[in-house]
Amino acid sequence: MPVEREKYSRAIEDYLKIIFELLEASGRVSTKQIAEALDVKPASVTGMLQKMSAFKPALVNYRKHHSVSLTPEGRDIALRVIRRHRLIERFLQETLGFSWDKVHEEAHRLEHVVSDEFEKRVAEVLGDPEFDPHGSPIPTRELEMPEHSQKPLSELDKRERAYIREVPDEDEGLLLYLEEVGVVPGARIEVLERSPYDGIMTLIVMGQLQNAVLGPSITRRVFVEKKR
Ligand SMILES: [Zn+2]
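Above: inputs. Below: predicted complex with zinc ion.
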């Protein structure tokens, strides 16, 4: 049975979303990572995790000093918020003309307040899009996360070619740079140079005059795939 969303606060939705995303990225998640991602004190994270694990039904599985996981209820709430976030980003860009570096902040506010009906209409108007403007997959209406590439750009070797699939969505300055050098979802790239010590990569981007130079903190969070 779907969980009633009205019962949960914005803070809880943010926690569940970040836990889901961290789990997707690395398979496990610690209180320290959550604290860093949400920019709060580890003690607040512990308190919130205890609260969410005591909910009926529980939203997370949590014991002190152990890693955290989501219950099916927690996962559904996380996926619903992620679906809304990504649909709203797409709506802001496509329908309202926002640039891709501005949609994340706006969507982050709206994701907690729009109604089920609003979400449904947005999905219909946009023709049930599969991806947000940054290439992240949009969970389906049934709250399934579509299969998607998880190969980071950082794993490509010199001379390897690939298509950009997904870029991080929260850093406006980075998004402006990526747009300027053409590192956007769908772009075809080739690794021109990879420095062996600090992992800085120089990319040829097809159709662009300028090469893209990206450090490892970025290339680990840009995802690529071999086929378009
Ligand atoms: Zn976003």
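The pocket of zinc ion is lined by residues 85, 89, 104, 107, 169 (CB under 6 Å).
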